[in-house]
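Team,

Forwarding the record for the chain on the shared tracking sheet. I've put the sequence and predicted structure together so nobody has to dig through attachments.
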Amino acid sequence: MYQYQFDPEIHQMLINFYNICGLRVGIHAPDMTILTEYPKKSDKYENYRFCDRIRYYSNSFTERCSACDIAAFRHIKATKKTYIYRCHLGFMEALIPIIANDEIICAIMIGQVRDDTVTPDTGKMREYLISIGIPDAALRDVIQSYQNMYHIGISRFEALVYFLEICAQSIYDNRWIRRGEQSIAEKFKDYIHTNLYNDLSIFSTASAQNISVPHLSRIIARDLNTTFTKYLNSQRMEVARLLLRTTEMTVNEIALHLCYNDPAYFMRLFKRDTGMTCTQYRKVSQTLPDDGRDNPF
């Protein structure tokens, strides 16, 4: 994993931004790990924001949030430009890339902002919360936090993003963030992620990393506590779950898309991974939105 070093100016910059607008701001690694933020998320539930409260109760919601954010980071990685987008519940979010040597090393992120031009529909939100398993005892509290969300218009949100773009440029100019060399394990993970839809073997992967197969196997076992095949399958199963939730692709099409030439083998792996068949998983997930296109609000 990359090692990041932050100049004290970074912390002060985040504090100043929060003092100006009252919106939490963070700096995220390419895998959306939070490197630093202000203010830090409280350990006490009563201080949680709306989305944090839902995550407390719903793993499926957490998974959808993560998928949305990772997709957004892929977008800025491809364009090397700021990206303003709507999450799967329609809230405004933004990623502002910090670039060094023509590579995005991390990004400033703000989000969980309700558009104040849209009247909050608490009735529909209540239905959604029930559908993802929020317990009845918590509904009133969670809906109250929804009504109390940070909310501004899109023009002001864009102005805050523009301010953070200036901050990102200052970070680059002054080298306030420095990143160490990437480990072999992280390079391996990046390579799998980039080539997930291609035929992969441990031999071709080791060759691409310029190391021997035994050496790669030892690193995967030591640093990731798994094997090449298990790691590759786990990443493909994650994509399979996403495709079953968000597309109408058949099981056979998904299997071939993920380079499983034997759909029956793919289905066995999927059931081993989730405890459900592909059909059962799609049926359970079909009522839950995954992105802004399916946003019920």
